[in-house]
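pls ignore typos typing on phone
flavin mononucleotide + seq
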Amino acid sequence: MKRAIVIYDTKFGNTEKIARALARGMEKQGTKVDCVNTDEVDIDKLVEYDFLAIGGPTHAFGVSQPMKAFLEKLKGVDIKGKKAFAFDTKYKAWWAGSAGKRIEKTLKRLGMSLVKPHSSAIVTGSEGPLKDGMEEMFEQIGGEMQN
Ligand SMILES: Cc1cc2nc3c(=O)[nH]c(=O)nc-3n(C[C@H](O)[C@H](O)[C@H](O)COP(=O)(O)O)c2cc1C
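k done
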């Protein structure tokens, strides 16, 4: 069976909810999924996965500090050719920026194969909550993910 890992950063818990929804959707289609905070990722074990989904909150129009540190660490691992998907949480505003966009750029540079363009879950305030329907949307994305 294919193995996948969903890796997330979260300050207030919203991105964690989205990461878990994505993982749930993937599990429903029969993929074995681990869902782990960036702080807890065993970087040397990433080679064992076929698919990496990586997401975090949008901070200052881009990635949070913990996500930035994690992406730096990723540069030391041979994950070239693996499948990947980037996501984020962010405001629905023209100026909001997107962590997912930055994450996706890094994953492309590392030679990963993006299965679909990055997706954003909308929060209605800095600490949340998520806009209605966001967890359902990501569960569906997980269910349709080609692994
Ligand atoms: C320091 C800081 C900077 C932020 N900057 C942005 C931003 O530039 N654009 C945006 O859409 N949201 C911004 N936000 C709001 C985050 O998108 C929101 O806190 C996040 O989606 C919540 O996810 P979490 O609960 O997983 O931390 C910022 C939040 C913090 C705490």
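The chain has one domain: 3-144. The helical segments are 14-28, 65-74, 99-109, 134-144. more later
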